[in-house]
Amino acid sequence: MTTTIESPAPARPPRQSVPRRILAIARNTWRGLTSMRTALMLLFLLALAAIPGALLPQRSLNQQKTEQYIADRPTLGPWMDRFQLFDVFSSFWFTAVYVLLFVSLVGCILPRVFDHYRALRTPPVKAPRNLSRLPHHYAGEADSDADAVIAQARKQLRGWRTVVTPGSREGEITLSAEKGYTREAGNLVFHLALVGLLASIALGKLLGYEGNVVVIANDGPGFCTTSPAVFDSFRAGNVVDGTGLTPLCVRVKNFKADYLPNGQAEMFTSDISYQSGGDLDSNTWRDTTIQVNHPLRVGGDRIYLQGHGFAPTFTVTFPNGQTRTETIQWRPDDATTFLSSGVLRIDPPGGMYPNETERRKHQIAIQGLFAPTAMLHGSLLTSAFPSMQDPAVAVDIYVGDTGLDTGRAQSLFALDPEMIKQGRLTKEQRANLFAGESVTLADGTKVSFDGAQEFVNLQVSHDPAQQWVLISALTMMAGLLVSLLVKRRRIWLRVYPADDPEAKRRTVVEMGGLARTDQAGWGGEFDRLRERLLTESTGDK
Questions:
Q1: How confident is the model at residue 11 (pLDDT cuts 50, 70, 90)?
Q2: How far is residue 109's CA from residue 117's CA, in Å, rounded to a whole number?
Q3: pLDDT average, residue stretch 286-291
Q4: Can you give 303-331 as a three-state secondary structure string?
Q5: CA angle 471, 474, 475 (to 5 degrees)
Q6: Which of 43, 73, 365, 489 has a C-alpha 20 to 30 A away from that of 26?
Q7: Comparing C-alpha atoms, which of 273, 178, 23, 126 is closest to residue 488?
């Protein structure tokens, strides 16, 4: 008869309570988030997330180009817009990566700061028992006594952290020396400055604003930053409501573009007048010149010259002899030749028609192309050069309701196709006109092309944290240089009396060293250090 002995079941570990499990999950999540590996992954992910912002048009920089990009891709474009690929740097997913990187960096750096502080307060490590086991070591004898050898070594080790301790044998003295702690300090400064840079950029996005406005050159009316309504496009920070803009007025006196013979732009220059601060009360205008990448800096604001284009001038003479003249900017469609497109809407003078309905039926709309240096291929107009040498337009002239009184937003560069489709706007004439030429419609209305003026696109940028961005960037570079150039080194000296009382030399000297970082070249550096420390004591050459 056999007896089976059953082994007892393994004891189950005690089950954690729900609060403890939640605390453990939170602790492990925090440790994973604040690890250096996670910070590097988030930094890589942030760079990866910025790629769409560089490759795709962004609504904050060029809204018209963005809308055209979406319109050209009716299926894919709206889906890309839903994922905020045209607002990358303000999207929820880019912000999430940005905030996680910020938290991860702070969680990585703070423990390292405390560890570095404790390391600075900790004395250098005592000498190993057997220095000959180190990769680089030296053994010799000195004519001087042990105290003199140690004193000579400490004199040569200025800038090193040193500590002298008695050895295990009689008369033995050991010296421990370390240097290179500023390497870790530089590394910490680099990462702290990176956090400061991220915080400064985020603060600038919250408290700053950017406004773009088109201004006709040749001493036009200019603009004043009284409200966001004066800008053609305005992007404000999350905590900016547009009521506290910096008071500033600007007039554009002229614009000059320098081109190479092949039509490539070399430099854009504009002379402007401006008022700011107390100048507004005294009505004092100051003159200055701005260029591309050379903005006007007034207080915390910067005024950039971002681009330019042309604004054709048309005069409409109505059958009763009354005239209307308007100048409005047209959009450059070709960045090389500045062939531009646009539209101009003109309302008849008041009292010319018996009622509003009749007046709306006789509004004039001019839509077409403008060439600064005209070149005709038959009746097809194009531009041969970007500067204004022989201006001309190819226009379609419409009569009817241009939509000025509908209350709906109208495109600055195109007519509403629905108005044409419904027959409320009818095409009356198509013509190519050079400066000074005109065309007469069937009802006797005369449309004249008077030429064109240049306009400039100015950007007013307010960023209260811009100086901190610069300071953080410079501090990052300084910390990086320190962490790359400084080397961690550790050496030990052990001196004790010679065992042979009749020996000519009375003191035995042992020296060993370790390279904590940058092993390359440490052998030669150790030999040079030994010569500097021990030559006078040992008599070595």
A1: low
A2: 12
A3: 91
A4: EEEEEEEEEEEEEEECCCCCEEEEECCCE
A5: 85
A6: 43
A7: 178
Angle at 366 between CA 360 and CA 369, to 5 degrees: 160
Task: Specify the residue for token string 């403890």.
Answer: 20
pLDDT single digits (tens) 189-245 = 998 998 899 889 888 888 888 888 888 887 667 888 888 888 888 888 777 777 778
What CA–CA distance (Å, rounded) separates 183 from 166? 30
Instruction: Count, in order, helices (H) and strands (E) of the chain.
Output: 13, 23
The full DSSP string for 320-376 is TS-EEEEE---EES-TTT--EEEEEEEPPPTTSSSSHHHHHTTEEEEEEEEESBEEE
Beta strand 331-332 with 233-236: parallel, antiparallel or unpaired? Answer: unpaired
- Is-contact 489 178, C-beta < 8 A? yes
Block residue for tokens 């070709």: 334
**How is 81-143 classified by DSSP, letter by letter?**
HHTTTTSGGGSHHHHHHHHHHHHHHHHHHHHHHHHHHHHHHSPPPPPPS-GGGSSEEEEEEES
* Among candidate residues 356, 364, 289, 361, the one with its CA nearest the CA of residue 322: 364
**Bridge partners for 248 per DSSP:** 276
* C-beta atoms surrounding 20 within 10 Å: 10
Q: Is the pLDDT of residue 10 over 50?
A: yes
Query: Any idea which residue has 């309504």 for tokens?
Result: 229
Nearest Cα to Cα of residue 424 among 415, 433, 432:
415
* Spatial CA neighbour of 324 closest among 468, 186, 447: 447
What tokens does 138 get? 């030296």
Rounded CA separation 442/49 (Å): 58
pTM listed for this prediction = 0.68
Q: Rounded CA gap, 432 and 536, in Å?
A: 96
Position 365, amino acid: A
Give the total residue count for the chain: 541
Residue 53 structure tokens: 């912002």
Dihedral angle computed from the Cα positions of residues 329, 330, 331 and 335, in that order, rounded to the nearest 10 degrees: -100
Q: What is the pLDDT of residue 474?
A: 95
Residue 123: half-sphere exposure toward Cβ, Cα within 13 Å: 8
Greatest Cα-to-Cα distance within the chain, rounded to the nearest angstrom = 133
Beta bridge partners of 183: none
The 10 Å Cβ neighbour count of residue 165 is: 13
- Specify the DSSP element, H or E, that contains 193: helix 181-207
Q: CA 46 → CA 49, 101, 124, 206, 451, distances in Å?
A: 5, 8, 40, 19, 49
* Closest by CA position to 94, among listed 103, 79, 84, 82: 84
Q: pLDDT digits over 439-449, tens only?
A: 999 888 999 99
pLDDT of residue 95: 86
Q: Are 255 and 268 in contact (CB under 8 A)?
A: yes
d(CA 328, CA 412): 9
290 phi/psi in degrees, rounded to 5: -120, 150
pLDDT-derived band at 288, boundaries 50, 70, 90: very high
